[in-house]
TrEMBL record:
GO terms for molecular function: D-lyxose ketol-isomerase activity; metal ion binding. It catalyses: D-lyxose = D-xylulose. Keywords: Carbohydrate metabolism, Isomerase, Manganese, Metal-binding. It is an enzyme of class 5 (isomerase). It holds the Pfam family Lyx_isomer. Its cofactor is Mn(2+). Its EC number is 5.3.1.15. This is D-lyxose ketol-isomerase. Gene3D superfamilies: Jelly Rolls.
Length: 226
């Protein structure tokens, strides 16, 4: 992706967050120059990859496959100094964007529609070999338990949520005609390096073409503390 595309995507997400009346923590406003001066008191942000993020799964088609996100809080299963057992994110999808089919080996999460349009989340159980299971999927959504056939898309309108369990395959897309969506994610600790199982092998972070200066640093771009 071009840096200019990333900058615009982050600005679009900021605008959506304002429309939904959500307020971000101060570190989300740090400029790249300000990050050069931030000392070890901000190591939790660096070590746990808090802050702005972009994924195109390494496919180079962000307008269709990928989305913008912010990790607001997170623990760390690899560093004993961080005691949080939970994480929280915001995800932003334009109407034509989608997330690819995947599950998490360990993480359980709630996906919440925080505002905007409607999101469609397709679900499958998985087999031991990582293939789709054709058995019915048990859904837990806002205090309601029910089952759906494998491959069903669960429709979440603003305010609604779904619990995604380990080994439950899921993807998501915005319902056509409903507009961009701001999603929340409340989960166990997030570890994108070891806990994602994509149905089709793919990457996580985009390759960046530096055609302009960064508006914000992404969570994998912070400089070390001075």
């Amino acid at each position: 992706m071009k840096r200019s595309e990333i900058n615009q995507a982050l600005k679009n997400m900021e605008e959506m967050i304002r429309k939904c009346g959500f307020h971000l923590p101060p570190f989300c406003d740090f400029t790249p120059d300000e990050w050069k001066e931030k000392g070890h008191e901000y190591d939790e942000i660096r070590d746990n990859m808090l802050g702005w993020d972009i994924t195109d799964y390494g496919l180079g088609n962000f307008k269709k496959i990928g989305f913008s996100l912010i990790t607001l809080r997170n623990g760390n299963t690899h560093m004993d100094k961080y005691k949080k057992t939970y994480a929280e994110k915001l995800l932003y999808l334009e109407e034509d964007q989608s997330a690819t089919m995947h599950f998490h080996w360990t993480k359980m999460e709630d996906i919440i529609n925080r505002g905007g349009g409607n999101v469609l989340i397709r679900v499958y159980n998985s087999k031991e070999d990582g293939s789709f299971d054709d058995t019915d999927v048990t859904i837990h959504s806002d205090g309601r338990e029910y089952t759906v056939p494998a491959g069903t898309q669960i429709r979440l309108t603003p305010g609604e949520s779904i619990t995604v369990y380990p080994y439950m395959y899921h993807d998501f897309e915005v319902e056509k005609g409903s507009g961009a969506v701001l999603l929340g994610e409340v989960s166990m600790c997030n570890d994108d390096n070891t806990d994602n199982r994509f149905y089709e092998p793919m990457g996580r972070f985009p390759e960046i073409e530096e055609d302009e200066a960064p508006y914000r640093l992404l969570c994998n771009e912070y400089p070390p503390a001075p």
